[in-house]
Design goal:
With about 425 residues, the chain is an all-alpha fold. It has a domain of about 80 residues: Serine Threonine Protein Phosphatase 5, Tetratricopeptide repeat. The protein is about 70% helix and about 0% strand. A two-stranded parallel sheet has the order 1-2. It is elongated, with a radius of gyration of 24 Å. The protein starts with a helix and ends with a helix.
Length: about 425
């Protein structure tokens, strides 16, 4: 591992800890988060040259605190803001702490920061962007590149998100016990959104973005470390690992998509599969059943089959039936229809798929047409399948998926 890579990984680990420390001391999440970003940038430039300091978290807290002081003094309302900081800080904290200063344990701060970035006052895209920057330690430019938008656009999104948190009166504190389960559900959803955008990019020339999947897995690991007894946290981490394990076989050298049934399974990451299976097996045995655990169990059945034709579709069908009861959604029904087709025949799958035709949540989504085309092809209706493949290709904004769907249509005739 190069020095720069080692520094980058360390900074991503320390980013939420340092942000949490500053917000707990001074309040003003928006200013503290900006100051931490500047400190991270300074470290990314200096540390590869000078070496990682003995106490890197203390170094970052010191630099960020100085940046925060500069920001506060530069505001037109300098006196009022400095009085606010002074009122919130013990007297000995009015002097910027040195790198050797003892710092509180970071676990609670990192978890609190995750909850804050996934505040219900924010839209899902804002939750994702703020989580990646404040908790993931990514720069605005890196987040913007990941989602294929201009840096200025992403900067505005992050700035608006911080202002909404401020306007909502959110405090840097764990949500009340009565709200924690729902807030944790939102955190898991945000991490899953980040992972899915990396694994199956919704737009652009690339099928997948490893930087996003890696960051989602890293954050899920951290959340699992902080909440080791939560079954759904373990289930989400297992689902990510079991899904990402297939990534090396999902594309050809030219970047084109390889469907699951045609992948070279010897190229799958056996270590990730084993870890994911162990996680989901352990959590299913001890925790209340939840949707991420069930999805992970389905992924495990796929990953444990040596060949596509060895897949235990009957077990997958039972798991989808459970998932439909635990967490019904059009996407679950879409995948359930494939399992039904593999066990009871494509016409039975098409019947289940027809129940989604009036669902506005899937209106215009290419996956409905793509699944219908696949099942029509299995049923032998080549002409109808070709038309659905073409419709799906027109609807997707992912160029690799578009090319794959067009190639499927072309195979079925002119």
């Amino acid at each position: 591992m190069s020095g720069a890579t080692q520094v980058e990984e360390l900074l991503r680990e320390l980013a939420p800890q340092v942000t949490g420390t500053l917000v707990r001391r001074y309040g003003q999440f928006d200013l503290c988060e900006d100051a931490v970003q500047e400190a991270l940038l300074a470290a990314s430039v200096q540390w590869p040259e000078t070496g990682i300091p003995e106490r890197p978290r203390g170094w970052l807290v010191t630099v960020a605190s100085r940046r925060l002081t500069d920001q506060v003094r530069g505001e037109s309302a300098r006196r009022r803001r400095e009085e606010t900081v002074a009122a919130r800080s013990p007297a000995d904290e009015l002097v910027t702490p040195g790198p050797e200063a003892d710092l509180p344990a970071a676990n609670d701060d990192a978890l609190t920061l995750l909850f804050l970035c996934c505040h219900p006052a924010l839209s899902p895209p804002s939750q994702v962007a703020l989580t990646l920057r404040a908790v993931g330690g990514l720069t605005t430019a890196q987040v913007a590149r990941a989602f294929l938008v201009p840096e200025a656009t992403m900067a505005q999104r992050i700035s608006r998100a911080k202002q909404r948190i401020k306007a909502a009166g959110a405090r840097f504190a764990m949500p009340p016990p009565a709200e924690r389960a729902e807030r944790l559900r939102v955190v898991l959803q945000v991490l899953y959104l980040i992972f899915n955008e990396g694994y199956a990019a919704s737009s652009g020339p690339d099928l997948q973005r490893a930087d996003l999947t890696s960051e989602a897995i890293r954050l899920a690991r951290e959340l699992h470390r902080l909440l080791p007894g939560d079954g759904e946290v373990a289930g989400l981490l297992a689902l990510m690992l079991l899904t990402d394990a297939r990534r090396p076989a999902r594309t050809r050298p030219d970047g084109s998509l390889v469907p699951l049934a045609e992948q070279d399974r010897s190229r799958w990451d056996a270590g990730a599969v084993a870890e994911g299976v162990a996680l989901v097996t352990g959590t299913l045995a001890r925790a209340p059943l939840g949707p991420y655990q069930l999805q992970a169990a389905i992924a495990a059945v796929h990953d444990e089959a040596a060949r596509a034709e060895d897949t235990d579709w009957r077990q997958i069908l039972v798991l989808y039936e459970l998932l439909e009861r635990v967490a019904p959604s059009p996407v679950v029904t879409l995948n359930h229809a494939v399992a039904v087709a593999m066990v009871r025949g494509p016409r039975a799958g098409l019947e289940l798929l027809a129940t989604l035709d009036g669902d506005d949540r899937l209106a215009g989504h290419h996956r409905l047409d793509a699944v219908r085309a696949h099942l029509l092809e299995l049923a032998g209706d080549r002409e109808a399948a070709r038309e659905r493949y073409r419709a799906a290709a027109r609807a997707t904004t992912s160029l690799p998926e578009q090319r794959y769907l067009e190639s499927r249509a072309a195979r079925l005739g002119p």
